[in-house]
Design brief:
Elements lengths: L3 E2 L14 H12 L4 E4 L6 H6 L5 E5 L3 H11 L6 H12 L10 H6 L6 H16 L6 H18 L23 E2 L7 E4 L3 H4 L7 E4 L8 H4 L1 H8 L25 H11 L4 E7 L15 H9 L2 E9 L14 E9 L2
Parallel strand pairs: 1-4, 2-3, 2-6, 3-5, 6-7
Antiparallel strand pairs: 7-9, 8-9
Helix pairs in contact: 3-7, 6-7, 11-12
Length: about 325
């Protein structure tokens, strides 16, 4: 029987799920009561879940296709039939590997990121969703695709991202697709844009910023889920089986301080909140921060009065890098009137 999927049921680098209560309570204490909240590097969307209890309007944005589909499933507008979704999920969970043909997904990822049997079923489900897309509302399609994304990620033969797979034969787990349960929160605007462009189009009382911190590109770390979402069967390269690069973030490059300054300068809000952590002194060069804490505070001070809060937190990096005495920082800037 299919289980219910909540938005927190994903492994995701930099996820703020465990810090959410601290982040939201600090925002509430410092910013007071306001009506609108924008999460412009939303990732899994876990911070926006906390914001729902304290704000009347949400703006949620991320550049990744897979994240955007999940937002549409949990928050998107439109009608959907629970009975229809249950019928699709039931059909998918009755599939047997011997009844499913080899497909694009199993040819590329079977025996690597997933067992051959599981990858055949995942690929079959994804293709079936595309075939039946016209019979589904946008909301139903998003719920079913997000359910597949979450269920696929759950059994992946990885340490939490897709920059590599674990070099052992994947466990022959029976693949089951569980079901996303949408939120009953209507006043949401969902975007899939570059954050620096988006802030020129939106306004919110509180704008929350949790950008990439280092050279690790999220579009490359989660290429497999992006591939599964778009379903365009691109040519893949290298041991990790990645497609051509797209959606590269300038926050992962040396120009990050300048890009961050541009972002802050164009935000229209009463408060700006920035999450950041002290990974700028790790042993791994790819984990070193592209913007220092001092640069962030200096930039924010050009926009308003800034306070800094910090909390000890064990960082999930999905690798072997050790971060000693790791702390999460929260900058809250009251924008000049």
């Amino acid at each position: 029987m299919a289980k219910k999927i909540t938005i927190e049921n994903r492994r995701y680098i930099g996820s703020k799920t465990k810090l959410r209560d601290w982040i939201i309570s600090t925002i509430k204490n410092e910013c007071g009561t306001h009506s609108s909240f924008a999460d412009i590097f939303a990732g899994t969307g876990s911070v926006s879940v906390g914001a729902m209890e304290n704000f009347d309007k949400l703006i949620i944005n991320d550049i990744l296709y897979s994240n955007n589909v999940c937002y549409e499933a949990f928050w998107g507008k439109g009608k959907y039939s629970n009975a229809k979704i249950s019928n699709f999920i039931g059909k998918y969970n009755r599939l047997k590997p011997c009844d499913v043909s080899v497909n694009y997904f199993s040819k590329n990822f079977g025996g690597k990121y997933f067992s051959k049997d599981a990858s055949k079923i995942i690929g079959h489900i994804r293709e079936d969703l595309e075939i039946n897309k016209k019979e589904l509302t946008k909301k139903e399609y998003s719920i079913l695709l997000a359910s597949l994304i979450y269920s696929t990620d759950k059994i992946a033969n990885t340490v939490g991202h897709y920059d590599a797979y674990i070099k052992k034969v994947p466990t022959k787990k029976t693949f089951q697709i569980d079901t996303v349960v949408p939120f009953n929160f209507k006043n949401v605007s969902i975007f899939k844009e570059d954050a620096n462009s988006l802030v020129n189009k939106i306004e919110a009382d509180v704008v929350y910023i949790d950008p990439p911190y280092n050279s690790r590109q999220y579009s490359r770390f989660y290429h497999l889920l992006e591939n599964l979402t778009k379903w365009e069967a691109p040519e893949l390269f290298g041991i990790a089986l990645k497609p051509e690069t797209e959606n590269s973030s300038d926050y992962c490059k040396v120009k990050a301080p300048k890009v961050f300054a541009d972002l802050i300068g164009n935000i229209k809000s009463k408060y700006i909140v920035v999450s950041y952590n002290n990974t700028y002194n790790p042993k791994s060069n790819s984990s070193k921060n592209k913007i220092t804490l001092e640069e962030i505070e200096k930039t924010l001070n050009t926009k308003g009065e800034t306070k800094v809060f910090k909390k000890n937190h064990r960082h999930f990096n999905a690798g072997n890098t050790n971060f000693d005495n790791h702390q999460e920082f929260l900058f809250i800037t009251k924008v000049y009137g």
